[in-house]
From TrEMBL:
UniProtKB keywords: DNA-binding, Transcription, Transcription regulation
PROSITE patterns, alphabetized: HTH_GNTR
Keyword Nucleotidyltransferase: no
Protein name as it appears in the record: Trehalose operon repressor
Species whose genome carries this gene: Gracilibacillus salinarum
InterPro entries xref list: Bact_HTH_transcr_reg (IPR050679), Chorismate_lyase_/UTRA_dom_sf (IPR028978), TreR (IPR012770), Tscrpt_reg_HTH_GntR (IPR000524), UTRA (IPR011663), WH-like_DNA-bd_sf (IPR036388), WH_DNA-bd_sf (IPR036390)
Pfam families: GntR, UTRA
Residue ranges of domain HTH gntR-type in the record: 2-70
Amino acid sequence: MQNKYMIIYQDMVKQIDIEAYKPKEFLPSENELTTKYNTSRETIRKALTLLAQNGYIQKIRGKGSVVIDRSKFDFPVSGLVSFKEVSEKIGQQPETMVHACQLIDAPPDISEHLKLKEAERVWQVCRIRSFSGSKIILDKDYLLERFVPHMSEEIAQDSIYAYIEGELNLTISFAKKEIVVEEPTEEDRSLLDLDGFHNIVVIKNYVYLDDASLFQYTESRHRPDKFRFVDFARRNH
């Protein structure tokens, strides 16, 4: 015989799947669920814990349990594509907000990433990506001025890669990528909707032109509930 909390868990999963409990909405309180299922608060908490562990809800201290939007977007790991190209492929129309677009002296950490031997200026472009009203990606780009002498908010709003390839006639060739999971920074929390989230997925891109010149360093910082990072692998014999 199944434990009662498992029966409750399965019923709540069904309710979430049919959107009786809609994404981004809070579940009834523990007291309300206790009454609904005619059981103890401990049993309800076990069911809620299982829902959280399996990605159906996010517990937010002092507020309750919110239903997670389980629709995810596939981002290619091995490909080198712009955000605009990925968005068009998955049929989504996200909103891009340009938070910063300025020419600065490369900070020490960016100089290290771009392997600069002496001081150089870089374009710092910071963009926030919003899906369905939720700000879930923070893209931070640093492009060497000697390769990209001009940048504007209008270009950043559209597609930097389309500008580089179409207007500057540069050929973007390959990139080295690193994927790490980090705790959100104060900047992440101020610019993204991260209430209840304690990790963020960071993709670091070192992007090269066809002559092997490293011209761009990018950090793309993703809220972890909305994305799958996919690749295709073939075994060599």
